[in-house]
Amino acid sequence: QVQLVESGGGLVQPGGSLRLSCAASGSSASIYAMGWNRQAPGKQRELVAAITSGGSTNYPDSVKGRFTISMDNAKNTVYLQMNSLKPEDTAVYFCHADLIENGLSRYWGQGTQVTVSS
Q1: CA distance linking residue 75 with residue 54, whole number of Å
Q2: What is the phi/psi pair of residue 63, to 5°?
Q3: pLDDT band at 70 (very low <50, low <70, confident <90, very high)
Q4: 111 in helix, strand or coil?
Q5: What is the CA radius of gyration of the chain?
Q6: 3-state SS class at 88
């Protein structure tokens, strides 16, 4: 069974930084891509960063220049470096992994809370 374990969330002041990690385990299938999404109260879940195993990345305009995603293929782990955090970045952050299993299958982590507040 695929497990995604996230870590690194917490409380940070505006302008501060946090680094999230997400490790995938439990499957021998190859990872096509991993990414991070977030969901604030009363809002839909949105993508904040994605990366393929080949290193291609994707960010929405709201986080470009502030967030950086990276992946350690050997460890099946994805990282999200978040700088210049704003109160509107406050949300639960979810990791996902797309595994190659007769097509692509998406798995989700349980989420980690990020709160940006003074």
Answers
A1: 15
A2: -125, -5
A3: very high
A4: coil
A5: 14
A6: helix
Cα–Cα distance between 116 and 84 in angstroms, integer?
10
- Residue keyed to tokens 């639960």: 92
Q: Are the beta carbons of 94 and 39 closer than 8 angstroms?
A: yes
Query: Per-residue pLDDT tens for 7-63?
Result: 999 999 999 999 999 999 988 889 999 999 999 999 999 999 999 999 999 999 999
Residues linked to residue 84 through DSSP beta bridges, in sequence order: none
**What would the two tokens of residue 61 be?**
């305009």
DSSP 6-73: EE--EEE-TT--EEEEEEEES--SPEEEEEEEEE-TTS--EEEEEEETT--EE--TTTTTTEEEEEEG
